[in-house]
Design a protein that fits this description.
The chain has 456 residues and is an all-alpha fold. It has 17 helices and 2 strands. The radius of gyration is 22 Å and the shape is globular.
Amino acid sequence: MFGSTYSLYISDRNLPTHTLPVTCTESEISQLRDLDHRCMDRGWAWVVMLASFVCLMMVNGIAFSAGVYNVVFLEYFGENKCTTAWVGSLISATSAGTGVISSFLTNRFSCRISIIVGGVVATAGMVLSAFAQSVQFLVVSYGLVAGAGLGLVYTPALVAIGYYFEERRVFATGFALTGGGVGVFIFPPMIKFFIDKYSWRGSFLLMGGVTLNICIFGGLMRPLQLTTDTRKRKEGVAVTDFTFLRNTKLILLSFSCLFWASGLGIGFVHLSAYAVANDSSELGASFLISVIGIGNTVFRLITGMAANHPAVDSLTVYSGTLGIVGLISLCCPLLMVTTVGQMFYALLFGMYTSSAVVLVAPLVVEFVAVSSLASALGVVNLMTGIGYLIGAPLAGWLYDTTGLYVNSFYLSGVCFLLSSAVILAAPLFGEEKIVFTEDVKENSQPNGCMMKISMK
């Protein structure tokens, strides 16, 4: 501190909060920060990490099991592949796209409130889906309602990690995101078992009960003192920060996410049907999604630990793995002719797409700072949702037009390669990280502080 000016840069090494007090004193900030730092990287932080793990396990497990339902819906309703694919693509797209709404709920209330509301909405969507009489009904109940509920869970589950962890933030984020891989591994065979035992309608009712458990784990996301105090101070004051949208790196990352989400959606929605078309059994085809989950889970942990090392550049790993999965997807038709080849492709697909998922949140923190994490993640997730929305239906249309799944997976490979290429341009724009500075001046309001935006 120099003279009467107090400068506070909120980055990945500073305050674990996304809002700043409108009325504050230096001593109050210091006391609250000390209180919060005693909770970081220890104690309840580990409970929050485990709760995030379970929440993300359920979000990804439900959203990416759409391929199992896709095979059933194609047979039951008799619609074409493009129309039926909207069900699976919309649940992924909506869950990602509602990140903006979940960011608002997180900023206005707390991570806990957003997750609990999301759990209730997702449960309602699953239960409603049990009574569907058409694909169009499922598009609304499963794709939109359940997807929106899952979206309200995803962003705050990640943001909570940013609040509670500092030194071990990348590891904690990687561990929590590993829950998504575990969900992709566990949920497809579980849902297939429910379908075989109780029909697809019964499976939706059972999954509604499973989904409701999100509320229990969301209740464990208790807000930190500084976040709670800040929210009380800002009551009645509408402050929305959109300055991070000027960040070129964030814009490039957003478009990169759009492309890889398109490729990822194609794989999760159509891989099982592609396997069935190549004479694989429905049970074996559903197991391919679990194989993706195995590769995804292991490499999420490895990526999380590796990215914590100072010698590892997260952006390079992110771009490189996307390029690899793009090339693998272009070779997919050569592997899909045998059962072993199908499993090998699914394993590689899961391995190399995991790094992108794990590294998005840390890259966002690098680009915009923790103070804008919730809002920036909401924008990135919105772009990801658009990718999920267009990828699978476009691949379904290609199949309906050409009668070959080969072209659909060529499209997937191109999407991954575009995603890798776009983010490679980020280093060309240097340091654009937006941070916040608080200046406490003699001529400011009593016990007040003035906020300004600066570029670091």
